[in-house]
Amino acid sequence: RHELTAADTESHQPAQRSFAALRDPGFRPYFLYSALAMMAGSVEHVISYWVVFQKFQSPALGGYAVLSHWLPMLFFGVFMGALADRYDSRRLIQIGMLLFMACSLAWGILFYTDTLEAWHSAIILTVHGIASVFWGPPGQVLLHDIVGPQQLPSAIRLNATSRYLGLVAGPAVGAAFLLALGPTYGILLNAVIYLPLILFLWKAPYGPRFQKVRAPARPVGGFSDIVTTIASIRGSRIIVSMILLSGCASLII
């Protein structure tokens, strides 16, 4: 009987390519348009936070801006993931993009009419936080539909890269918009940057009706799912160390 050596085994394994998911024709535009959408979110933060601070000088409103950005994901992220299992992730992401656009347009109108009040700001900040929930978990589910299981690790890494590219570019572009166009026209222009992702997802061949076999949706356990996830990853030193590093950075700030 012929026994496979280690060299034989390695020769039968597919070669690992750098940035493999970028070779997928569907992932490339999703990568680019996601980075643009993330950049647009950062641009909105730069412009709106600056105007709100200049107008109200309110530490409480500044604190609420942070809470409204993160608490919706904490409270509703698990349930939105369950919705993404049951419904078309493309449409959920599009809803999130439309909400982002509505926030930029609302800021722009209030800036233009000089009628912005603190409660307006609180509402728009809340809607912006909710919009991020419509994008986050469904966006992760959509990666499976676009690249499939073989290229999924590469797609996840690159998707994180596109996110941080947008976060890095956003403040610079937001500052440029402020200097060149002013807050009103800058944030109105920013609303247009969400359109490429919306249009790409409109007829992109992904989602439930394009899947031959779709796994049944798993029941939602709520916060018990979070506990289960923590129990699953606690053995991974890399994941745990990255979470602790982020937590320490936040604590120090």
Helix coverage percent of residues?
over 70%
Mean pLDDT metric: 85
Q: Could you tell me how far the N terminus lies from the C terminus, measured between alpha carbons in angstroms?
A: 64 Å
The structural class is mainly alpha
Low-pLDDT segments, ≥5 res? 1-14
Count of DSSP strands: 0
SS summary, helix count: 9
Shape assignment: globular
Main β-sheet, in a few words?
none
- SSE order, as H and E? HHHHHHHHH
Strand fraction equals under 5%
From the alpha carbons, calculate the radius of gyration and give it in angstroms: 21 Å
Structure description:
The protein has 253 residues and is mainly α. It is 78% helix and 0% strand. The protein is built from nine helices and no strands. It has helices at residues 6-12, 27-56, 59-86, 89-113, 118-147, 152-192, 195-203, 223-233, 237-252. The radius of gyration is 21 Å and the shape is globular. The protein starts with 5 loop residues before the first helix and ends with a helix. Residues 1-14 have low confidence and may be disordered.
